[in-house]
Amino acid sequence: MTLLGGAAAWPIAARAQQPAMPVIGFVSTRGRDESAHLVAAFRRGLAENGYTEGRNVTIEYRWADGRYDDLPALAAELARRPVSVLAAIGGTPAALAAKTATATIPVVAAFSADPVAAGIVSSLSRPGANITGVSNLSTALEPKRLSLLRELVRSAGPVGVLLNPAFPPWSDQLKEIEDAARTLHQPLDVLRASTDGELDGVFETIAQHRVPTLLVASDPFFNSRRSKLAGLAARVRVPAMYGFRDYVMAGGLMSYGIDLADVYRQAGLYVGRILKGAKPADLPVLQPIKFEFVLNVKAAKAIGVTFSDDLLSLADEVIE
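The structure corresponding to this sequence follows.
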């Protein structure tokens, strides 16, 4: 009986000596369902460092679904848990919320604007403190998107520019676009929306005023409503440019930007490195080197637009 009791006690003792499974806090500006492919990319990055959710790491998810005002409370909740690493994903608003929530827990963020200018890190090469991550340069690419849109439709009318004034970098986006428009001698019609109802109103305005083209500025709220935006643009037959290929896969006309799934994979890689002992202050902020221009021929035919040979030759992917 003594021997059997001692043997039975071994698994309990062994389990007691096992280190607790690390917990990753994952707070996103986006929505759960529409981000499934991006979460899969994040998990791939973790797996490259030997971490698999449910096997040797746990992930606690919090989703703002485009409601930026919810982010500080969501990030603070994860920081109180506490978590081993906090992944602040989906743009600068999540990074700012994480910075406010903790000065000690390592943070890996996906930045949509310059994190140095935003005061989140000290420099790209040496972030300092507890935050590093990946910059998707999204707001800095707006002038290129405007230029490509003009190549598609050369019109004397103003280009509509859809911006979200609830998005912290929106004023920087507008300045970048206005500067580019002045160089191109292109008039603009600035449209604003921060809710689903306001999006519907914007496209009613586009239809009534016959806005010839539309640039949808990069914004996590817009990204999470890409199917809605592509559908509204098709309904009013306005050629629209977007920031990521996800819009084009949802039926949008054209996009120019970085490979967003790869940003999430790189964020997962950094989280894995930190779990293995790396310090955020020593991990430089990564910047994308691959950009993709994607066209949707089916969407073009539906609204009566034809891509020129020049545009087709520039495209990295053409969806038939």
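The first strand starts at residue 23 and ends at 28.
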